[in-house]
Specification:
The structure holds three protein chains of three kinds.
Chain A: E1 4-11, E2 21-28, E3 33-37, H1 44-52, E4 59-64, E5 67-68, E6 79-82, H2 94-104, H3 109-122, H4 138-150, E7 156-160, H5 168-185, E8 188-193, H6 196-202, E9 205-210, E10 213-218, H7 220-225, H8 230-235, E11 242-249, E12 255-260, E13 263-267, E14 278-283, E15 289-291, E16 298-308, E17 312-319, E18 322-329, E19 339-343, E20 350-352
Parallel strand pairs in A: 3-8, 3-9, 6-7, 7-8
Antiparallel strand pairs in A: 1-2, 1-4, 4-5, 9-10, 11-12, 11-14, 12-13, 14-20, 15-19, 16-17, 16-19, 17-18
Helix pairs in contact in A: 2-3, 2-4, 3-4
Chain B: E1 3-4, H1 13-40, H2 51-58, H3 60-92, H4 98-106, H5 113-124, H6 129-136, H7 152-181, H8 184-192, H9 197-225, H10 229-235, H11 242-252, H12 256-280
Chain C: H1 25-59, H2 63-67, H3 81-88, H4 92-123, E1 124-125, H5 129-140, H6 144-158, H7 164-189, H8 192-200, H9 205-234, H10 237-242, H11 249-255, H12 262-294
Classes of the chains: A alpha+beta, B mainly alpha, C mainly alpha.
Chain lengths: 363, 290, 296
């Protein structure tokens, strides 16, 4: 087990004009579960592959434990990896697959067998040890891939979107299993995904990446609740964070944001210096209170679309001419065209610079 | 992908589309094959006879041809496969100019075996380029007589080199095509799991290439058994090969019956080869990848 | 820069334990291996390429140069005498023309017969589909030598012995299994939806095929065509057995091998090799597809 330290990693693919990773620096603590989250092309897989040794960085450094491994081939780094496609060898039985790494490193036969049995037990593969991968379902093959990785006692466990080829239900159940499993074994883990639910559920910390850079790295709750930029707020959460455009105004000690149509919301005093300037306000759909009766502290909106989602209802409405999505309890009903009053309390609001998208205030 | 051509269609369209090809292949393959088999057992009066076979077996040249053909095939195939695998692995490592290398290494594919023989003739000739180089380097006085008919091992060597040069491209193409279908995840997974280059080759790449190699082996071996024009160009009549003998009997000696007999020997060997390979390289059906 | 303008920081402050220096030794090893890789590639290229260079040199050397020993490997004294003599030798020019005509004829015939069959395999599930494909694979493995002699007799009786037609038939037949398999995989690659859309918009099945499928399948069909031409151009045995006066170029060269002067043979070799360079240049994009597809 070891910590992983990445410094200023730069990688441009041959033939590419833009950097896949742009001087990325990140530390993963010993035993930590770090999730790299972002849309496709953001560089998260490239970063993972540089840690694995499957890509060589153009510049920068990768340190595992106390060793510099920047240019070492994968086999010398003492890692294990689970691939998105599982890469379970079709010509070998499950047992031989799981034992593959041990066999390559010439581990003693008896010891290898014990480890394989242990891993198979952990992943409920014991009845399938003598089968070929083509005789297993996708979910089972995925377990073989995970078993093959954990049996290695590696310093670092790398996972490249291991759940994305599973169907939705399997993904849900296996996600929980994976969390429990990795927690039990406790290896330092770096996990790549584009699914923000996975990221929030599994990670000790989530590093959100965009266009080759890390835009925020923090524990899941902070990343969700206090996004460092509009991008992060929009990427996490379902539905994404709402963003309203307004102008900061106010007199004396009071600061508020004018949304237009005579609607305004209270703003923190710290933003006083930005009075007169435009600002973007972020608020999560579930943080908005809904009332049918007009209230002083609420803003008026008109319902456009009403979607019953089972566990809750999602209302798309227009507030001061801007679209806003509101989550309400399952029992709530509304019709398109109805007027509603939305309560947006100040501590649920987040403030962003309209040009750069960057947060104006930290948590 | 494809639709069921059921009885509700008025015209059996697929069968109509196939018909010309079936007719052509029956006429061009089926009919001559039967005719050839029959002819080998036919006497000049049209009756059944084994005289042709006796004639064939009685000729010492025939046995020389059998020996040469089998020996050549047995040596050429392993050399070609090793060579082609090496070339494919070199290309797989993506060196600079890989595209150019691939193009040039594939050129012999389109060279006829006769032309290949003539190309190496210019090299192995008594006054050819190889001897020129050897003499210029002072290694020999007057050049080695590569084509000396009294030295069958030398004849074997020059035919071998020409064949390797010419026919390795085919194996190369098949191997490279086979490799491209293998997802590179497998090799990467093996790398992370600690396998060295040779371990990856032996435990991952080669087993996954097995279907391609099987096809390549069968096709290439059968073609090797038919080696003909290369030897004609390089050695004239001094290095008998089975197909060369067929040609002799048919054209020079005007005896199509014996020619057919020799041809059937080639056919028989080809079938044995195919069966042996299919058996030896059979994979358990459970392994067939999804 | 990977940090945002204001806190929270993009990454927690790195601990101030010293990082080990970057280990460049593996990088050096990697670079050395790349060099060795290039060297190996060059060596192989020399083995494959030098003979081609040499036959070209031989074909462009005069008779005197060819008789000299030891020969020079450099193109110092070039002359077109040998080639001119070769081209004016009896039978060569007609044989050359024959080869072209036969090549084109075989190409056309193989496509006319093979492409429909390929289309049938690609688009229809019919009884006998699997056996038919097996049959095709088997015929590919059949040695031509077994067929040549009986075929020559068949053609004799039919009165087409020693004609261009006979050789065209045989060459087209030889290339038929591969042509069918290639065109089948080409048509499979053309999405069915596009064809069906065309039919929905009013085309008959044949019109849909002509207007929609053919343009998309053209590159692959071209590859099959070139394959047939190359096969026909290079084919020696059947051509030699089946013809007497209307020889193809390889047959002509083969037959005159024993009687011809060495210069003739070199020129002949060169004439047969040059098209190969052109063919592979044209086909190189499809080479892998062809073999990948025929593997199935």
């Amino acid at each position: 087990m070891a910590e992983v330290r990445m410094r200023n990693l730069v990688k441009t693919y041959p033939g590419g004009s833009v950097r896949a990773t742009d001087e990325v620096t990140l530390d993963v603590a010993d035993g930590e579960f770090m999730v790299l989250l972002g849309p496709s092309g953001c560089g998260k897989t490239t970063l993972l592959r540089m840690v694995a040794g499957l890509e060589m960085p153009d510049d920068g450094q990768v340190v595992i434990g106390s060793r510099d491994v920047t240019y070492l081939p994968p086999r010398d780094r003492n890692l294990s990896m689970v691939f998105q496609s599982y890469a379970v060898f079709p010509h070998k039985r499950v047992r031989a697959n799981i034992a593959f790494g041990l066999r390559m490193r010439r581990v003693d036969r008896a010891k290898a067998k014990r480890k394989v049995d242990w891993a198979a037990e952990l992943l409920q593969l014991t009845p399938y040890l003598d089968r070929y991968p083509s005789q297993l379902s996708g979910g089972q093959r995925q377990r073989v891939a995970v078993a093959r990785a954990i049996v290695m006692d590696a310093d670092v466990l790398l996972m490249d979107e291991p759940l994305s080829n599973l169907d939705a239900l399997l993904r849900l159940s296996f996600r929980a299993e994976l969390k429990r499993l990795v927690g039990e074994i406790g290896t330092t883990t770096i996990y790549v995904t584009h699914d923000q639910v996975e990221a929030l559920s599994l990670g000790d910390r989530v590093a959100v990446m965009r266009e080759g850079r890390i835009v925020q790295c923090d524990n899941p709750i902070s990343v969700y609740d206090v996004p460092a930029s509009e991008f992060v707020g929009g990427f996490l959460g379902n539905p994404p964070m709402n963003f309203l455009t307004g102008t900061l105004a106010g007199t004396n000690g009071q600061v508020q944001v004018d949304l237009g149509s005579q609607e305004s919301l209270p703003a923190p005093a710290r933003l006083a210096e930005f009075r007169g300037k435009p600002v973007r306000v972020g608020v999560r759909a579930e943080a908005i209170g809904v009332s049918r009766e007009p209230r002083d502290d609420a803003a008026r909106c008109v319902v456009e679309v009403f979607e019953p989602l089972g566990a809750s209802v999602l209302i798309t409405a227009t507030l001061a001419g801007q679209v806003i999505k509101v989550q309400a309890p399952a029992s709530f009903r509304a019709e398109p065209g109805e007027e509603l009053w939305l309560v947006l309390s100040q501590d649920s609001l987040r403030w962003y610079d309209p040009d750069s998208g960057v947060a104006l205030i930290a948590a | 992908m494809a639709s069921r051509a059921g009885p509700r269609r008025q015209l059996p369209v697929p069968y109509l589309l196939l018909l010309p090809s079936v007719v052509m292949m029956t006429l061009l393959f089926g009919w001559p094959l039967l005719s050839g088999i029959l002819q080998a057992f036919q006497g000049p009066d049209g009756g059944f006879t084994l005289a042709n076979w006796e004639r064939m077996i009685g000729e010492p040249r025939f046995w020389e041809a059998v020996r040469n053909t089998l020996l050549l095939t047995a040596v050429v195939i392993p050399i070609q496969f090793l060579f082609a695998m090496t070339m494919a692995m070199l290309l797989q490592a993506k060196p600079k100019f890989a595209g150019f290398y691939f193009y040039l290494w594939a050129v012999p594919l389109a060279v006829s075996d006769l032309a290949a023989g003539l190309v190496w003739l210019s090299i192995f000739n008594d006054v050819g380029y190889l001897n020129s180089v050897l003499v210029n380097l002072g290694l020999v006085e007057h050049g080695v007589q590569w084509q000396l008919y009294s030295e069958p091992s030398r004849l074997f060597f020059i035919v071998l080199v020409a064949e390797v040069w010419r026919a390795t491209s085919l194996v190369l193409i098949i191997v490279v095509a086979g490799m491209q279908v293998i997802p590179k995840d497998y090799d990467e997974a093996a790398q992370v799991l600690g396998a060295t280059f040779w371990q990856r080759l032996w435990y991952v790449t080669l087993p996954l290439l097995r279907p391609s190699l099987q096809v390549a082996l069968i096709l290439r071996t059968i073609l090797a058994l038919e080696a003909f024009a290369v030897a004609q160009a390089l050695t004239g009549r001094n290095f008998p090969l089975l197909v060369g003998e067929t040609y002799e009997w048919a054209v020079q000696l005007q005896n199509p019956a014996v020619a057919s007999a020799v041809a059937l020997v080639v056919l028989g060997l080809s079938m044995v080869v195919a069966i042996v390979y299919l058996r030896a390289l059979r994979q358990p059906s459970a392994v067939e990848s999804r | 820069m990977s940090t945002v303008a204001t806190p929270p920081a993009a990454a927690p402050t790195p601990e101030f334990t010293e990082l080990p220096p970057v280990d460049r030794a593996p990088l050096r090893r990697l670079r050395r291996r790349r060099v060795l890789l290039q060297v190996a590639c060059v060596l192989v290229t020399l083995f494959m390429g030098v003979p081609l260079y040499l036959i070209t040199l031989a074909a462009f050397s005069s008779r005197e140069t060819l008789n000299k020993f030891p020969k020079s490997l450099w193109p110092t004294e070039l002359s077109t005498d040998t080639l001119k003599a070769f081209l004016s030798s009896t039978g060569v020019l007609p044989a050359f023309l024959n080869s072209i005509v036969i090549g084109l004829g075989s190409l056309v015939l193989a496509l006319l017969i093979g492409a429909p069959a390929g289309y049938a395999i690609a688009r229809f599930l019919f009884r006998g589909r699997e056996p038919y494909q097996l049959f095709l694979l088997l015929t590919r493995a059949l040695p031509i030598v077994v067929l040549s002699v009986p075929l020559s007799q068949l053609f004799l009786r039919a009165g087409v012995y020693d004609t261009v037609l006979a050789v065209v038939l045989v060459h087209a037949g030889l290339s038929l299994p591969t042509t069918i398999l290639i065109t089948a995989s080409v048509f499979v690659a053309v999405p069915r939806d596009v064809e069906e859309a065309a039919q929905l918009f009013g085309c008959t099945r044949f019109e849909a095929f002509r207007r929609v499928v053919v343009p998309m399948a053209l590159p692959g069909i071209a590859a099959a065509a070139i394959f047939t031409f190359v096969l026909s151009w290079n084919e020696v045995l059947a051509a030699a057995v089946l013809t007497l006066n209307n020889r193809t170029l390889p047959a002509q060269v083969l037959v005159s091998l024993s009687d011809s002067p060495i210069a003739y043979r070199f020129a002949g070799g060169f004439a047969l090799v040059v098209p190969a360079l052109l063919f592979i240049l044209l086909m190189r994009r499809y080479l892998l597809n062809m073999w990948g597809s025929t593997l199935r």
